[in-house]
Amino acid sequence: MKIIPSSRDQWLNLALFPFKAYVVLAIPFYFIFRTFCSYGRAATFYDIVVYFAFCLVALLIGSLIQLVVSGWEYAFSSFIFVVVPVLLFVIVWFLR
H-type helices in the chain, by residue range? Predict the structure, then answer.
């Protein structure tokens, strides 16, 4: 396993990794925080919405760049992470 990417495709994936990680980890941490904290729920929820919107735009632009540079395989894997924040946002919106 190499730590430093060797191809352009791997560099693009590495650049998008923080956004993908946030999309996966934000909702579980929100629910954990919500159970232990009785105040600040609305502010925390709106922070997540803002960061999801930022991640959505970054991942959409990244997946379009990957589509042009790398091909549809890499772009599809990033585009899945564009769809996930939208679905999670809708779920969290109705569960808050």
Answer: 8-36, 41-69, 72-95
